[in-house]
# Entry
Amino acid sequence: MSRTSAPAPVDTKVDSALAHGLKQRHLSMIALGGVIGAGLFVGSGAGIAAAGPSIVIAYAISGLLVMLVMRMLGEMSAANPASGSFSVHAERAIGPWAGFTAGWAFWFLLCVAVGLEGIGAAKIVTGWLPGTPEWAWVALFMLVFCVTNLAAVKNFGEFEFWFAALKVGAIVLFLGLGVLAIVGVLPGSDAPGTANLTGDGGFMPNGTEGLVVGLLASVFAYGGLETVTIAAAESEHPVQGVAKAVRTAMWRIAIFYIGSMAVIVTLVPWDDKTVVEKGPYVATLDHLGIPAAGQIMNVVVLVALLSAMNANIYGASRMAGSLVTRGQGPKVLGKISGGVPRVAVLTSCVFGFACVLLSYWRPNDVFIWLLNMIGAIILVVWIFIAVSQLLLRRRTEREAPETLVVRMWAYPYLTWVALAGMAAIFVLMAREEDTRLQLYFTGGLTVALAVIGVVRQVLASTAAPKANEAEPADAADSTDSADVKA
# Structure
């Protein structure tokens, strides 16, 4: 592969075979749905408990990093829309081994995440219907979304559109009520002023260590934005669709994540135990005296989990299909029928449900290993995105500048800033006991995939000259045959 010119797109076969059934409204909502997950509604409570009011700074820092990553990914995806997204870009920029590593690592992450989200959703339902087995609910959810993804892609788009609409509506309503309470015009509540921001230890009650823990929690809450660039390849207008979706996702990150954290820590004391026990959103609504707040938010969290399951099955199947089409996996996974990679969908669902079964059969060893292995994969993916953008931008400006519909800000300086930020997060993870093990396991998985990718690339490169040597002989044989016939 030449390093002096931009290689041709490497994902065209699978993308041309896939159905282009997603509309712009689907893409916009997929972009929104990707940033609003259970990690925001529930997981952010641990970050608040560690960082206190300074969690707002933590989410602002990690949000800025995510914006830079999405801008880079948007630039490459608008220039070359592909169902393999960053895996395709890594292959074009760095080499086949990089595409293999980034793609299969992300597939593994999504499949395990599908299982985790299914377990979370089942726990909520069994809370409403005690006595029913959790695994049966997970199986039901898996079956529903497997069937949804086996059908036309527009079905996936419709599910995600309405799921995301419910989540967005809940966030907007929450922010609206929160602002009214902060200014003191919400009936039954008094304006808190800055008491919760400066009291109980101040704005940074646990010092920089607490801020670091909050920062790490916030970084991984942003995972999921990448799905929109995978889905763009199946939209009616891929280039315009991904460009618009990425641009609008930027300011929505600021409003939904940073705005929510600001409202919560202003209204509720950061050390209130209910922030962790019930989740920050439920704790805030309870504090404001909103009736049935817990059940309302349980419904929203359930929708968030089911939405994530649907999106992750979709993303895993498309990533697997793209990898196989590029010769990076078993050919059977790449089979497309009716515009859908159905074997890849089924395989991703089976792998996800296997992870669920492991959570019951081997909860203390195998399942924990799986959780640790996916701990920092999203950071590995982001590094591949940044390095790919550094290399591809220069080539694209030289070979096809008209394709740069979206441009990374202040290239290459902000790309290097983003890489430095990712390196800093790795250092912080190595310092914290809770995240150090995740870093080691994720590193082991990444190295193993990279070694396999390099070996495959070397074998492919050595096989290519032999194939080329055989071509002249074949051509001579065909010529001789033609002479005999003549």
Remarks:
- Residues 32-457 form a domain with the Amino acid/polyamine transporter I fold (CATH 1.20.1740.10).
- Residues 1-8, 475-486 have pLDDT under 50 and may be disordered.
